[in-house]
Amino acid sequence: MNLKTKLYLAGFFISSAACGNEAFQPAKAWQELNSNLVTHYAYLGDFEGYQQSKQLFAAKLENIKTKQGFIDLSQAYLRHFTDPHLNMGPLNEDDYIVYPTGADLYAEFVGGIAVIQDVKRDSAADIAGLRPGNTVASINNQTVTAAVEDVMQVPFSSLSHQQRNYALNVALGGKRYQPRTIELIKQGEITKVTLAASYDAINALSDGPKVSFNKLGDFGYIRFNNAMGNEQTVVEFTKALQALGKVTGYILDLRNTPSGGNTGVAEPILGHFTDSKAVYQQYRTQTPATNYQSAVLEQAFATPQQPQVTVPFVVLAGRWTGSIGEGMTIGFDALGAKAIIGAPMADLLGGIKRLSLNDSGAWVEVGFERLYHADGSFREAFEPDMLRRGDMDKNGNDVALETAIKVLGQNIQ
């Protein structure tokens, strides 16, 4: 071999290593992802279709050449678990929204037809006049079936009813920070609406108060504005109690907490509703050495805070009550709420942690803490004891809030 040939080959190997794509091994990255799920994800056993989905997506790996391609495929794979807390990144502009933060509609398939069940109040969808009962004909110029298949990357026929509903709501939220076009059937006629990116309304909240409040007759109404990870929320909640002054009851509105938060914010707020140290939820932690089922059931406590709430209170929850919002809802229930009113919550599973995936340069968030109500039932099994439309009925009325006022009225007589 002459010197020229040696230099050429050396240059080839250097540029191949520098490029990185040729060195990427999708099968190895796939093994790493699933190994982390088995080791850390406390809800893996709940997904009955795990092995089937795993095999289906493993067969797609032969077409994957880049790390970005692997991440995109894996994101679709994880949506099959229908757990909004199970996410993979990094995220880019071509990715779908993270549900439910990026959603302003909640829909379900009824008799094979996509029907809107709830609309987030003050969202782009609400402002455009979408209402429960509207039928969805197309999403971003795709049929509903095609839109669902794009989210899940498998044929519609292979999906369970739960998976179809989950994918439908991700599709309605659209791509991150991108406007959406939705065709609706209203009274037999097709109407096309263009909606702003669903994240716009959520992001606008960051510039406003973390807590909103006002008086509804003799009752104090307090609404949380999706800032349950911000310590300022604790400060503003205490100020709201003080500013409302003497009331005969409280309505606590957790219907706009889709992005979750942390216990450092939740526990001081819950503390205003107990006069002694009290359990508000329980948990088991899964580790590489111990499956959650074998772990010790531990308790999370709220400790008394001033001012103390001594009057009746009720809680509003719904499709956009997520993560720590769900934890606070079951916590308020354990601490003596007169009623939990609204729609089933978002079911963000567990307390989460983020794991680095070295072979793909990605990360995955998994629920490693299995969460329970104080009574020992799973958090995700909890539903409001008074089921109503979460945010609005077909006429845009807040029936959950109307119910809350009636319940409080009955409890102070």
From TrEMBL:
Listed GO MF terms: serine-type peptidase activity
The protein's name in its UniProt record: Carboxyl-terminal protease
Any GO BP annotation: proteolysis
Keywords annotated in UniProt: Hydrolase, Protease
All residue ranges annotated as the Tail specific protease domain in the record: 219-386
Natural source organism: Pseudoalteromonas piscicida
Signal sequence coordinates: none
Domain of life: Bacteria
